[in-house]
Amino acid sequence: MKKIVTLIPSATEIVAFLGQKNCIVGRSHECDYPKNLDKIIKLTSPKINVDGSSGEIDRQINTILENSLSVYKVDVKQLKILNPDYVVTQSHCEVCAVSFSEVEEIVTKHLSKKTKIISLQPNSLGEVFDDIKRVANAINIKQEIYSKLIKSLETRLENIKNKTQNQKKPTVACVEWIDPLMAAGNWIPEMVEISGATDIFGKSGKDSHWIKFDEIKKYDPDIVVFLPCGFDISKTKEEVDYLIKNDEKWQNLKAFKNRNFFVVDGNQYFNRPGPRLVESVEIFAEIFHPKL
Q: Which of 90, 135, 169, 171 is disulfide-compatible with 221, CB 3.0–4.6 A?
């Protein structure tokens, strides 16, 4: 049986989606879906306090990156023992997982020459599907199997698009980080569009970017969705409650007055470029068009 190590949650989800969950022998500390991963060895750990506020986490990360260090530690000793056939990682974001250059160095230095690195770097939904195909081909999944799986995802997207495209499109601000403020990019604006709304800040296929509150105030969106990277609903709600209470200008926004502030599970559904992004589109559609 092939041995696979997944160093980012989306990689674990993709491998499991392809029916190869039993081949995963090592994972990142953040890999928590699908269920029953507890017995699979964790190979990474964070160098920061992930329980801090968004502002505290941002300051810790900046300090580490200023010194050209990785935000995560890798258990090289355990990785050598596992000696995987494949290591699935990413080169999309230095903050989201172990840096690609570090993974390359570790594999070259400590693992067999036969170990293959599969790197994910999606910026759009189409590229997420391309990554699923790349992983499938690399680990020798038959085309008819993965094509059928991807088709099922595309059909769900098409169903949402057909239901929402003739509806009035609300304007939406998707906040990917709270302190400092960041507008969500990459696949998020495309997902908003499919769900029948207009993302006023994000640009499809482009990186998330910092924004000022004055920009949100200027456009005064119909809906604000908070989906901080790595935060679940309770953590996000805690941050948003603090924000509104301590910065009353947020209460002047149309979206707040109309009870159209939403918190979603960014960690599980919106920040992971894997098959569950389709479920995330369905969540968006419920928010934007609840009557449908």
A: 171
- DSSP class of residue 11 equals H
- Integer Cα distance of 105 and 17 in angstroms: 28
Mean pLDDT for the stretch of residues 147-164: 97
74-82-271 Cα angle (round to 5): 50
Tokens 């090592």, located at residue: 26
Taking a C-beta distance cutoff of 8 angstroms, is the pair 25, 116 a contact?
Answer: no
CB atoms within 10 A of CB 130: 15
pLDDT, residue 32, reads 94
- Which residue is it, tokens 């990459």? 186
Q: Which of 231, 220, 235 is nearest to 170 (CA)?
A: 220
Q: Which residues pair with 175 in a beta bridge?
A: 183, 226
CA distances from 116 to 28, 53, 103, 179, 214 (A): 17, 37, 11, 38, 47
Neighbours of 250 (CB within 10 A): 18
Q: Which residues contact 8 (CB under 8 A, 6 or more apart)?
A: 28, 30, 31, 88, 89, 90, 96, 97, 120
Q: Encode pLDDT of 97-131 as tens digits.
A: 667 778 888 888 888 889 999 999 899 999 999 99
How many other C-beta atoms lie within 10 A of the C-beta of residue 237? 13
